[in-house]
From TrEMBL:
Proline dehydrogenase domain ranges (all copies): 44-298
Co-factor binding comment: Binds 1 FAD per subunit.
Catalytic activity: L-proline + a quinone = (S)-1-pyrroline-5-carboxylate + a quinol + H(+)
Official protein name in the record: proline dehydrogenase
Top-level taxon: Bacteria
Annotated binding of FAD, by residue: M133, Q161, K185, G186, A187, K199, S224, H225
UniProt source species: Paenibacillus chitinolyticus
Keywords: FAD, Flavoprotein, Nucleotide-binding, Oxidoreductase, Proline metabolism
EC number(s) reported in the record: 1.5.5.2
Protein's pathway: Amino-acid degradation; L-proline degradation into L-glutamate; L-glutamate from L-proline: step 1/2
Length: 304
């Protein structure tokens, strides 16, 4: 049953018509638990709230399907507006983005052009931009673009997904440019040809690549709500005397708030990933796919 629901949410999240329809409804069905709002003002207020209890943020202007150069450029403009709003408000947040929303599926050049505009703005404000990792189809090109951008910018990093067989080799290759990486288990539905089908293997590989990246001396954002992983990493960091400025914990907005606050109280750097915007549906469906138990929470909101 859980597998059926997982597949259904993953398919819905990818459906253009479902995404389009959801936009017309506004932030509904309990999505506000995971999405900070539809406007930049609401998102900045959410970040202010996180900052007030010691958490940092990374803002993501949601927007996944882009079919024209014009839409890609508009999406880049939204990223720039987000960086400008962060600077103007003085909140402590960096930016996360998805390159498909900047035209990656239209052309690599268009995407690079938009990335440079965004990174120039981030640089002007002394800020950092994280390129989220999307599905396997976009993995190699994302890494190629990161390598190209790193020749020009030091304020950009990406994400490595532990469910991919290739991730261990990618960590090794990225050591060459001392990449600042967010390490995650992986959120997309992938074929067993490219990704570990068993959760235990993903969890094992996850811990392995985090340790590998930290021991290489590179910055790691450990992005997980898995307490067993977090506890093992805390012990590893302590035993290996990894400096507090070489890593941070990251979690998603609205998930395991208790654990986020506990880590802050213990003195760790914690950053919440804060999505906002009218294109909330695909993101929301991925969160439900990760944890179908959340669907009861959605149903409760649906009938409210
Ligand atoms: P796991 O799925 O094993 O969950 C461990 C526990 O966490 C669960 O038992 C539950 O208690 C809690 N939990 C997890 N998901 C929950 C949910 N949706 N609702 C409520 N509780 C939940 N992926 C990707 O492919 N590309 C990316 O760029 C990113 N970026 C990213 C940024 C940040 C800050 C985070 C935290 C995660 C991502 N991800 C991602 C998603 C990631 O790949 C993964 O799908 C989720 O983090 C869930 O995996 P966990 O590591 O939390 O463990």
């Amino acid at each position: 049953m859980e597998a059926i629901m997982r597949n259904m949410f993953q398919a819905l999240g990818k459906s253009h018509s479902a995404n389009k329809m959801a936009k017309r409804f506004g932030l509904r069905f309990g999505a506000a638990r995971f999405v900070a709002g539809e406007s930049i003002q609401q998102a900045i207020e959410a970040v202010r709230g996180l900052n007030s209890d010691g958490r940092l943020a990374t803002l993501d202007h949601l927007g996944e399907f882009v079919f024209s150069e014009e839409e890609a450029n508009e999406s880049a403009e939204m990223c720039i507006n987000t960086l400008e709003a962060i600077a103007a408000s003085g909140v402590n947040s960096n930016l996360s983005l998805k390159m498909t929303s900047l035209g990656l599926d239209i052309s690599k050049d268009l995407c690079l052009q938009n990335m440079r505009r965004i990174l120039d703005c981030a640089k002007k404000h002394g800020n950092f931009v994280r390129i989220d990792m999307e599905d396997y189809e976009h993995c190699q090109i994302t890494l190629d673009i990161l390598h190209e951008l790193r020749d020009e910018y030091d304020n950009v990093g990406t994400v490595i997904q532990a469910y991919l067989y290739r991730s261990e080799q990618d960590i090794r290759d990225l050591n060459g440019i001392h990449a600042n990486l967010r390490l995650v288990k992986g959120a997309y539905k992938e074929s067993p040809k490219v990704a570990f089908p068993e959760k235990k293997d993903v969890d094992d590989n996850y811990k392995k690549i985090i340790k590998q990246h930290l021991l290489n001396g590179n910055y790691a954002a450990i992005a997980s709500h898995d307490e067993a992983v977090i506890n093992e990493m805390k012990a590893f960091i302590r035993d290996m005397k990894i400096s507090g400025d070489q890593f941070e914990f990251q979690m998603l907005y609205g998930i395991r708030e208790d654990l986020q606050k506990q880590l802050v109280a213990e003195g760790y750097r914690v950053r919440a990933y804060v999505p906002y915007g009218i294109d909330w549906f695909g993101y929301f469906m991925r969160r439900l796919a990760e944890r179908p138990a959340n669907v009861w929470f959605v149903l409760k909101n649906f009938f409210k």
